[in-house]
TrEMBL record:
It catalyses: L-threonyl-[protein] + ATP = O-phospho-L-threonyl-[protein] + ADP + H(+); L-seryl-[protein] + ATP = O-phospho-L-seryl-[protein] + ADP + H(+). This is non-specific serine/threonine protein kinase. Residues 320-347 are annotated as: Disordered. The keyword Transferase applies. The active site is at residue 153. PROSITE patterns: PROTEIN_KINASE_DOM, PROTEIN_KINASE_ST. InterPro entries: Kinase-like_dom_sf, NEK_Ser/Thr_kinase_NIMA, Prot_kinase_dom, Ser/Thr_kinase_AS. It comes from Dermatophagoides pteronyssinus.
Length: 347
């Protein structure tokens, strides 16, 4: 099976122009974020007055070729995407031996900062607020998957927030463009707390790995910490909690059966048993419809029958798995994800 590597098959990288003068077009106001290999500034375009995020990639500090490609990949991916819930790429250029990305500016931080504020102040988001944010992220991911792009690092810190409560998926350095006939990849990248079990075990994975991460994100919006989090946690302890599906149940008196079912059906060890984005959106619509029908108590979704959606998804997943098995019949070295996870659990 062929993998499309963007550094080899995409000529867009040649279009990042050398333009030391272009940097003078931006009035840098303040540093809003930084990391080992990048800084992000709030800036104003002197020509049109637009407030932007100016992301400086510190290419001189990056010696590792893979890390360099991750930095460049974000530009390549963002150029392919145009969606209201994905941060917009406005420009990119070389200046003074660094790469600068000009991005849409998110004026209300990100979901990780919101969650931290809620945790410190002992507050919770309402179910409708959570579903509003989560639906927007689902719409963005649905669009990405339709373009054969996996995000691979979905987490609250990578969901930016606007003052009007619009949220935008960001940080595409770990994203991967795959060909339409590629079923799985193996590369290990991402943030451990949000990574699907098949990725921890370096097994083949596909779009369903993003679904696992979405389940973790939804759980954190409710509980204000990731499902498998513990303080001072060793990676082996984290993996055991994941394979045991050891996460604290959500209080049924505060949040509906429907939202808990979404999480439970995203956090499935077997990738083929997880919901896809369309099924998640369908479940959300049912929950929101129930809320809108003035059923005010927090258990108002307990009488919604999700079995039809779940059964339909299981049948679809099984059909896809049978097709994939037939397509990959000549590849006798392929691992079966669920069997491998069970073997690791029992060892």
């Amino acid at each position: 099976m062929m993998m499309i590597m963007m550094n080899n098959n995409d000529n867009d990288i040649d279009e990042i122009r050398f333009d030391d003068e272009n940097l003078k077009n931006y009035d840098i106001k303040k540093l809003v974020g930084n990391g080992e290999f990048c800084d992000v500034y709030k800036a104003i375009n002197r020509i049109n007055g637009q407030v932007v995020a100016l992301k400086r990639l510190k290419m001189r500090r990056i010696q590792n070729g893979q890390t360099r490609m991750e930095c460049l990949r974000e530009i390549l991916v963002l150029r392919r995407l145009n969606h209201s819930n994905i941060i917009k790429h406005l420009d990119s250029f070389y200046a003074h031996n660094e790469i600068y990305m000009v991005l849409e500016y998110a004026d209300a931080g990100d979901l990780s900062k919101m969650i931290r504020y809620l945790r410190v102040n002992n507050k919770l988001l309402s179910e409708m607020a959570i579903l509003n944010y989560f639906t927007q992220i689902c719409e963005a991911l649905d669009y990405m998957h339709s373009k054969f792009i996996m995000h691979r690092d979905i987490k609250p810190a990578n969901v930016l927030v606007m003052q009007n409560h619009t949220v935008k998926l960001a940080d595409f350095g770990f994203s991967r463009l795959i060909s339409s006939n590629t079923e799985n990849v193996i590369t290990v990248v991402g943030t451990p707390y949000y990574m699907a079990p098949e990725r921890h075990f370096q097994l083949k994975y596909s779009f369903s790995a993003d679904i696992w991460s979405m389940g973790c994100l939804l759980y954190e919006l409710i509980m204000l910490y990731p499902p498998f989090y513990e303080t001072n946690q060793h990676i082996n302890m984290l993996i055991k909690k994941i394979t045991d599906l050891d996460y604290k149940p959500i209080d049924s008196t505060l949040y509906s059966n429907g939202i808990r079912q979404i999480i439970n059906n995203c956090l499935r060890l077997s990738p083929i048993e997880r919901l896809n984005i369309q099924q998640i959106l369908e479940m959300i619509r049912l929950i929101q419809s129930s809320h809108n029908n003035e059923q005010q108590n927090n258990n108002n979704n307990n009488d919604i029958d999700f079995n039809l959606i779940l059964t339909r998804q299981r049948s679809k997943s099984l059909g896809n798995q049978i097709k994939n098995d037939e397509d990959n019949n000549n590849n006798n070295n392929d691992d079966d994800e669920m069997d491998s996870i069970k073997q690791i659990q029992s060892s």
